[in-house]
């Protein structure tokens, strides 16, 4: 059974390695992925991603770049979606949708998507 969870900063190294291996089109090295997941604008304890794990093995992820912005409702926590990937053998089973639902599940956070690839755009919508 695939488990979907918000990932704390303590999982950064594993997630960065996964992204570096499975998302090569970005052309970042491991330092670039660690920078994206650094949480430099986040609050201490904020999550950095949503992960999908099958018996502990990382099989999917979407990064969350957290920050704060002023909105018409006042200061809000923002989580921008970045770098979404699900291993091919887990696609078509709802794992991607489960990751997305988890990523947008916190009512205290406004989630944005500024850079989605065309393929998963319908699911993002």
Question: What's this model, at a glance?
Answer:
The chain is α+β, with helices and mostly antiparallel strands and about 120 residues long. Helix content is about 25%, strand content about 35%.
Describe this structure in words.
- This protein is an alpha+beta fold and 125 residues long.
- It is built from four helices and five strands.
- It has helices spanning 12-22, 30-36, 95-103, 121-124; strands spanning 2-7, 49-54, 57-71, 74-86, 109-112.
- A five-stranded mixed sheet has the order 1-2-3-4-5, with helices on both faces.
- Helix 1 crosses helix 2 (30-36).
- The two termini are 26 Å apart.
Strand content: 35-45%
User: Regions with pLDDT < 50 over 5+ consecutive residues?
Assistant: none
Instruction: Estimate the global geometry from the Cα principal axes.
Output: globular
Strand order of the largest sheet: 1-2-3-4-5
Mean pLDDT: 88
List the helices and strands and how they pair.
Elements: E1 2-7, H1 12-22, H2 30-36, E2 49-54, E3 57-71, E4 74-86, H3 95-103, E5 109-112, H4 121-124
Parallel strand pairs: 4-5
Antiparallel strand pairs: 1-2, 2-3, 3-4
Annotation keywords:
125 residues, alpha+beta, 5-stranded mixed beta sheet, 5 strands, 25% helix
């Amino acid at each position: 059974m695939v488990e979907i969870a918000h990932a704390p900063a303590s999982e950064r190294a594993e997630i960065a390695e996964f992204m570096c291996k499975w998302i090569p089109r970005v052309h970042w090295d491991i330092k670039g992925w660690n920078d994206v997941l650094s949480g430099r604008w986040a609050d201490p304890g904020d999550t950095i991603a949503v992960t999908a794990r099958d018996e502990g093995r990382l099989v999917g992820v979407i990064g969350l770049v957290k920050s704060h912005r002023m909105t018409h409702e006042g200061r809000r926590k923002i989580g921008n979606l970045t770098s979404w990937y699900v291993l091919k053998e887990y696609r078509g089973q709802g794992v991607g949708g489960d990751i997305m639902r988890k990523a947008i599940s916190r009512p205290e956070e406004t989630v944005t998507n500024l850079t989605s690839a065309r393929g998963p755009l319908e699911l993002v919508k």
